[in-house]
Write a structure and sequence with these properties.
By secondary structure, the protein is of the alpha+beta class. It contains 9 helices and 15 strands. β2, α2 and β3 form a beta-alpha-beta unit. The longest helix is centred in the C-terminal third of the chain and has 19 residues. It is globular and about 65 Å long. The N and C termini lie far apart (about 60 Å). The relative contact order is 0.19. The structure holds 2-oxoglutaric acid and fe (ii) ion.
Length: about 325
């Protein structure tokens, strides 16, 4: 197929598809933006695909060519991976790690160079994934589109849900077939799909034990250690018991609510051309009254706080396990 056409036209051919994994998934419900049931689902911290909101509609003109004409000379942040898996790796934490070489590297390049590499890409080359905060690609004409997003609707909703203000927007421009490894984020996300198709596989925070996130000090903190394509069940036996998984396939105009602390794995459809998405992150409102029994995500917050405290006090991650065992085994177990 003509690579140039593939990149520009963002077509969806008949053989387009997603990857196969070995677990059962329920469908995330699809709810129109003005449906009265929408708020109840979001207030229960359940994922939902919101249709028809036109929340980020002005970004639909942000095709690769359009972006090239507007931000072609801007330097943007691009992840490069040897294979289709993009495992987020915080370079600032690398010195504290025991030394695994990251498979995903962050680089900075001009947008026009990124696009050139996308168009000239051939099997065997590193795969690329542009991930840049909107604030750093501010360019007058993009800001005009950005200002025309449905901010009244967004702000009204975030007040209904008692979320804090928007903290950031990430622009995600992926090669088809790219996969973002399973992880959780600490904020609520309204994830707007602009071009192409993406599939989310989501698991609730109750599945923390089955997904074995890396330790908190590790550069891959918040990412699951389990490789969905080839899970190591000896090392991660509880992955066999995983349940509560949900699937959402997003097309242009869809917005997915990803609740804070929900695990998500994200795929850009294979052979579908590049995808463009924008995430809108909001902090939870910490002043909300605590209601018992605590929710699963609140227990994840507690365990992360205890883990952080132990790491700070012990100064050696190897000691965490024995201290926790001495504290609980035969006493709380
Ligand atoms: O779209 C992707 O590849 C990852 C998006 C994601 O993890 C997020 O917006 O939180
Ligand atoms: Fe995420």
């Amino acid at each position: 197929m003509n690579e140039e056409r593939r990149v520009n036209d963002i077509e969806y051919s008949a053989d387009s598809k997603f990857r196969n994994y070995n677990f059962c998934l329920d469908k995330v419900p699809k709810v129109p933006f003005d449906d009265p049931n929408l708020d109840a689902t979001i207030l229960q911290n359940r994922p939902v695909i919101i249709t028809g909101s036109k929340m980020a509609a002005p970004a639909s003109k942000w095709t690769p060519d359009y972006l090239q004409s507007v931000i072609g000379n801007r330097r943007v942040s691009v992840l490069a991976s040897r294979d289709h898996n993009f495992l987020f790796h915080n370079a600032k934490m690398v010195n504290k790690d025991s030394g695994d070489a990251p498979l995903t590297k962050r680089t900075v390049m001009k947008f026009s160079d990124f696009l050139k590499r996308l168009r000239e890409w051939k099997p065997g080359d590193d795969r690329l994934y542009l991930q840049e905060k909107f604030s750093s690609c501010l360019e007058a004409s993009l800001v005009k589109d950005y200002d025309e997003f449905k901010w009244n609707w967004i702000n009204h909703k975030r007040k209904v849900y008692s979320w804090g203000p928007l903290t950031s927007n990430l622009i995600l421009l992926a090669m088809d077939g790219n996969v973002t490894s399973c992880h959780f984020d600490e904020q609520h996300n309204l994830f707007a799909q602009i071009h192409g198709y993406k599939r989310f596989i989501l698991f609730p925070p109750s599945q923390y034990e089955c997904l074995y996130p890396y330790p908190l000090y590790h550069p891959c903190d918040r990412q699951s250690q389990v490789n969905f394509e080839n899970p190591d069940l000896e090392k991660f036996p509880k992955f066999r018991e995983i349940e509560g998984g949900m699937e959402a396939i997003l097309g242009p105009g869809d917005v997915l609510y990803v609740p804070n602390y929900w695990f998500h794995h994200v795929e850009s459809m294979m052979n579908g051309g590049p995808t463009l998405s924008i995430s809108f992150w909001f902090k939870d409102n910490l002043r909300k009254e605590t209601v018992y029994p605590l929710k699963d995500f609140q227990k994840v917050i507690i365990s992360r706080n205890v883990e952080r405290m132990l790491l700070e006090l012990l100064r050696d991650p190897k000691e965490v396990s024995s201290v926790l065992k001495a504290m609980t085994l035969g006493r709380y177990s």
